[in-house]
Structure formats: structure tokens, C-alpha cells
């Protein structure tokens, strides 16, 4: 059995994988927190945690009142 992985880490990993494989490209807008929360059947807090970690890593870029985008690398 695989070790337990917190949901926010899975969300982070899956977003990162979509960027790595080119499914999400620099400048692409991510779905809203609410849409991602619905997709993963979780709370907005969990989604925001994953997104915050990716923003801190420079993978994503948050634009106040506009959304979250894949950063230009």
C-alpha cells in the first residue's frame, strides 16, 4: 500500500504534472479555487494550500482579482 499523501500534495503534484507534460502552458489560467475544490471533492482551503506552495516555488503566478496562471519559466 502506498504511503498516505495529503490531498493538497496530490493536487500540487497533479498540477505540476500537467505543466510538465505541456497540458498547461505558460500563461494558461488555472480553474478557480471553487472549480478545483469540486473536482477534487475537497475544500477551498486545501486547494489554496496546493496553489500557494506552487506560487512560492515560482511555478504559478497569482494575479489579485484575476486568477492564477502558469508562470513563464
TrEMBL record:
The lineage of its organism: Bacteria, Bacillati, Actinomycetota, Actinomycetes, Micromonosporales. It comes from Micromonospora rifamycinica. This is Regulatory protein, gntR family. Gene3D superfamilies: Winged helix-like DNA-binding domain superfamily/Winged helix DNA-binding domain (1.10.10.10). Pfam families: GntR (PF00392). Keywords: DNA-binding, Transcription, Transcription regulation. GO terms for molecular function: DNA binding; DNA-binding transcription factor activity. InterPro entries: Bact_HTH_transcr_reg, Tscrpt_reg_HTH_GntR, WH-like_DNA-bd_sf, WH_DNA-bd_sf. PANTHER family: MANNOSYL-D-GLYCERATE TRANSPORT/METABOLISM SYSTEM REPRESSOR MNGR-RELATED, MANNOSYL-D-GLYCERATE TRANSPORT_METABOLISM SYSTEM REPRESSOR MNGR-RELATED. One of its GO terms (biological process) is negative regulation of DNA-templated transcription. It comes from the Bacteria.
Amino acid at each position: 500500500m502506498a504511503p498516505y499523501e495529503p490531498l493538497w500534495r496530490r493536487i500540487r503534484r497533479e498540477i505540476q504534472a500537467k505543466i510538465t507534460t505541456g497540458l498547461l502552458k505558460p500563461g494558461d489560467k488555472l480553474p478557480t479555487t471553487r472549480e478545483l475544490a469540486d473536482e477534487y471533492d475537497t475544500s477551498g482551503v486545501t486547494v489554496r494550500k496546493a496553489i500557494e506552495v506552487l506560487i512560492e516555488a515560482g511555478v504559478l503566478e497569482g494575479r489579485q482579482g484575476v486568477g492564477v496562471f502558469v508562470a513563464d519559466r
